[in-house]
Amino acid sequence: GIQVEQSPPDLILQEGANSTLRCNFSDSVNNLQWFHQNPWGQLINLFYIPSGTKQNGRLSATTVATERYSLLYISSSQTTDSGVYFCAVEIQGAQKLVFGQGTRLTINP
Amino acid sequence: DTGVSQDPRHKITKRGQNVTFRCDPISEHNRLYWYRQTLGQGPEFLTYFQNEAQLEKSRLLSDRFSAERPKGSFSTLEIQRTEQGDSAMYLCASSPKRLAGGADTQYFGPGTRLTVL
User: Fold this and answer.
1) Nearest residue of B to residue A48 by CA position?
2) Bigger pLDDT: B2 vs B65
3) Contact residues, chain A, for B113 at CB < 8 Å
4) Which of A8, B45, B69, B71 could pair with A96 as two cysteines, CB 3.0-4.6 Å apart?
């Protein structure tokens, strides 16, 4: 099956710093989503981005489908950005998301 | 639209007991998914429904697990004879009707955290 690898596994930053999270996947996909999992376990949708670039406030994401990777950028980090960020992909016809192992982001005040 | 809801949010049970979880998807979403997440891991797919039809089941879904979506609205996930290895977060998601071969955003509920003692 498709492999999804996220890097780095852990990232510790000071408030105000910028960060880049990476997601590599091993096959062509027709769905790619980025999620933020809060301390209570809720998966919060950040982006639906099978290709191209999107921005939402301090967050932006880029997926280069032909090279099988996606990047999530967080600018001017705040302590509330802390948590685990997951990338998940769906291959055509599979009808299910396959998740990476996540990146645990800690923003210190 | 209040999003995907799940009940209960937490469940503590003793090994060997049966438990049932409920998921209410976003209204008019015809696809409903169940995932399981263990500590330190990403969620893993269990099963999905299109309307009331269960179209795919993961090998993770042993014969002690059963899921239903009787009227194509809410869904239940039952675990019989629970084992300590069943302790996990059980997540439900829904997505709207798709064009053939297409994909769409999956929206997740808050999850049910199961602890088997």
Assistant:
1) B105
2) B65
3) 41
4) B45
